[in-house]
Request: fold
Amino acid sequence: MIVTKEQLLKFCFEVFTACGMPNDDANLASEVLVSADLRGIDSHGVARLSGYIRLWEAKRANLQANPKIIYETPSTATIDADAGLGLVVAPYAMKVAIEKARQVGTGWVAIKNSNHFGIAAYHAMMALEEDMIGFSMTNASPLVAPTNAMERMLGTNPICIAVPAGKEQPFVIDMATSNAANGKLEIAQRENKSIPLGWVQTETGKESTDANELKKGGALMPLGGHKGYGLGAAVDILSAVLSGANYGPWVPPFVSFLNPLPNLPGQGIGHFVGAMRVDAFRPKEDFKIHMDNWIQRFKEAQRIDPEIEVLIPGEPEFRMQQERSINGFGLNQNVANDLLDLAKKFNLNL
Amino acid sequence: MIVTKEQLLKFCFEVFTACGMPNDDANLASEVLVSADLRGIDSHGVARLSGYIRLWEAKRANLQANPKIIYETPSTATIDADAGLGLVVAPYAMKVAIEKARQVGTGWVAIKNSNHFGIAAYHAMMALEEDMIGFSMTNASPLVAPTNAMERMLGTNPICIAVPAGKEQPFVIDMATSNAANGKLEIAQRENKSIPLGWVQTETGKESTDANELKKGGALMPLGGHKGYGLGAAVDILSAVLSGANYGPWVPPFVSFLNPLPNLPGQGIGHFVGAMRVDAFRPKEDFKIHMDNWIQRFKEAQRIDPEIEVLIPGEPEFRMQQERSINGFGLNQNVANDLLDLAKKFNLNL
Reply:
């Protein structure tokens, strides 16, 4: 099924409002979701729409949430997301961070009592138009085993850093702290292909090339071994121990058919976002000249294969976004069926 | 040669002061260097003392530097290190960050015109006794090739995050953004052992198991492929594009026998440090209770091998530090010879 950006935005909006979400929030949530598809991160786009709705049906997500600042200093805040969608509360938190950065140079916001926030890049990239460097990270349902452990203790806990440039496109790194994101496993499962060693381990902690290992009780493995474990753990701590959300194995699962554990130590899942004014460190124009120079120099790095470019982080997603915004793009059949089911359920056209 | 902490501190101090470094700076630089040996990061400890001295002899490091804040906001500052040692200016910058965090919740400092700062952990861990989360990172001499490139464009650009706990030891992740730190290659070279694929590539960009590949013109490979390239690049940008230091392939080499490139875009090497008060987000006591709970739960994660513990980041270094501080430790013969040469040169006893 070939779809356009506008079509998907409209459909998501209609689904969210059909569930009672206020128009502004529904618009924003739709924009965040569809931005993932446009950037080519299909696992975090409309493929998840039905999952968010099921969380609402299970009364685990509040679509009429009223997030509030519950703690703050001139450069920080903690937000209680009121069990809303991260899709909505993370942009709200970024606005708070940006306003604090305007006042005192930087702003940092920890969020508790939230749900999945979509792609990290959307939120961090909000800082770019303000000539700020944006940061966003989140914890997530436990799928990753720490080094030497066979138990799932961490989510794929992504980190995004977005840096503005002058004439060049911004630098945007948005990466899971596991070797492979769950989306890549799903593709291998669908195509019935084996996966590289290092992505997953079996239920008893042995490395495996079977893409179905996670379903059989195994775990994802952290990026590059113990370093990825440390990074993912740091994301968990900043997102949840700092905010008062659940952490580690207690992070509530995204899928509605699994219940949260009993005796939770916090509320919902946690995020952490930040914004730093570049002109809190040096004049904006100087920064942009050197950022452009940085980007140009890295693009000109000697290639291993003359036919294969050295890319700047964010460049593949930016190209995909340009192309998909103009030409539309194809939805995977499972995702299309999922959306058609939603259309039927809420009596909508897709 | 078996040495004690006190012996090494005294010797480093005497070498630095013999080169005209003021007593306070010499004390601090010695403490930072020796802290690396105590933590078991031998590649960043007294093994580098002669390297710092050679940089001073080559007039590339100023041992009487007077670092200055050249730009600031309530939560940020940029420091010109006056070509001093990072060993001294990074702790100075952390003090500035900590003072800003006291005032407005967080403090972030970019440093230019500096030299190698030793282990990242020393600086980030300064935040711990203030009940703050500490961050430190630095760029470094180019050794790492971006994905698809055969050229060395980035240093091993480490990131450190240090988080205070209550009764438990703090959480400290201190990691290079390459798959292997240079120190690990040196050990394999010394022992004439092959190394795992993924650590280095040849001069023409092919993966290799030869520990000598770097010396033959090859490059280190980024942690887990393109993600490590992105992380190392982000460290470079925060440390140098933000501060006005040199970045990418222009970062001046640590070794004094290689000259910096002509037409440098900045000054010296760059660092970036930060401090966040935990009670800028939630009451300190709550944070500590949950941080202790986080640590205890991760230590209890189901093990793959019942004999092999699941460790908290920073735990191995903490144990090493306790043991080495009490019992002393052995210096590698090359390092010992290096120190004996310095003793002779400056007419000192070791």
In short: Chain A touches chain B through 77 residues (CB under 8 Å). The first strand of chain A starts at residue 2 and ends at 3.
